[in-house]
Amino acid sequence: MIRAYQQACQQRVDACLGQLLQTDEPSLARLYEAMRYSVMIGGKRVRPLLVYAACEALEGDLDHADGAACAVELIHAYSLVHDDLPAMDDDALRRGQPTTHKAFDEACAILAGDGLQSLAFEALSGERHNPADPTMRLRMLAVLARAAGPAGMVGGQAIDLGSVGRSLDRAALENMHRHKTGALIEASVQLGALASGQADSLALTALQQYAAAIGLAFQVQDDILDVESDTTTLGKTQGADIARDKPTYPALLGLDAAKAYALELRDLALHAVRGFGQPAEPLRALARFIVERRS
Q: Is residue 225 within 8 Å of 199, Cβ to Cβ?
């Protein structure tokens, strides 16, 4: 089920992203080329999938979730472009292709990331592809801004960079990843729920519990794959975290315990949405996919 659902959602969000990543201004052609390259060369589109799945779980109209799906993918893509820069992780490979600063140049990559970040908020602010209610759109903008900024993803990256070569205990490692990876995943689920127009407080609480569990599970599985997988399968340099002496779950807990923890988090996510009906099945499938994926 998940493969067909993933393909359908990818096609949907990619069509919307393709419209956003166009310009008629010749002087901006190279910038937009770098932006398109950063977004459209691949990716699992997990965050847009979560937007759509959360909206569907509450029986909302996906036409009102397209803006949020684009926005979270644009924020994610911008973060990868900047994380890959020499001043950050200095990576040469992303999704099996040269990173943006390698394919273009460092200055162009910085500007492409900046452009993608701004475009995310533009995608979420207009009435097209979003709820008609401007108050709801403003609420959704606030959710995305908090998840993307120093209280979320950017703060997590700062913690990550400051943790290289240091030993973190389990609470500190979890805090870092709930910011760096988990915040945008949690926002994706929340935005999908809000886009549905059907999200009451009980549903939002259950979905927040689901998202918190899968957000951390995603990072635990990433850490496991950095040990077990290979560069070709991952599409990025295998073993990079170990080489940089970054704290990871396998290093802290051991590989077997890290795998057990990923499954525990999956089960917590599934338990959180146990009261939802058949429309929430894609959310359940995504929870399983996140800990079973090999890249």
A: no
- Length of the chain in residues, anyone? 295
Instruction: Judge whether 197 and 191 are in contact, CB under 8 Å.
Output: no
Give the separation between CA 117 and CA 111, rounded to whole angstroms. 10
Give the burial class of 167: count Cβ atoms within 10 A of its Cβ; 0-12 exposed, 13-18 middle, 19 or more buried.
exposed
Can you say whether the dihedral through the CA atoms of 284, 287, 291, 295 is positive or negative?
A: positive
The CA distance from 276 to 274, in Å, is 6
Burial 84-99 (b: 16+ CB within 10 A, else e): bbeeebebebbbeebb
Is residue 47 within 8 Å of 214, Cβ to Cβ? no
Assess contact for 269 and 214: CB atoms under 8 A: yes
Closest by Cα among 144, 269, 266, 149 to 194: 144
- Is 120 in contact with 144 (CB distance < 8 Å)? yes
From CA 31, how far away is CA 51, in angstroms rounded? Answer: 28
Q: Render pLDDT for 57-104 as a digit per residue (tens, 0 to 9).
A: 999 999 999 999 999 999 999 999 999 999 999 999 998 899 999 999
Predicted TM-score (pTM) above 0.90: yes
Nearest-angstrom CA–CA distance, 114 and 247? 28
Task: Show the domains of the chain with their CATH numbers.
Answer: 2-290 (1.10.600.10)
| Tokens 């127009």 belong to residue | 197
At a CB cut-off of 8 Å and minimum separation 6, what does 35 contact?
21, 112, 115, 116, 119
CA atoms within 13 A on the CB side of 14: 16
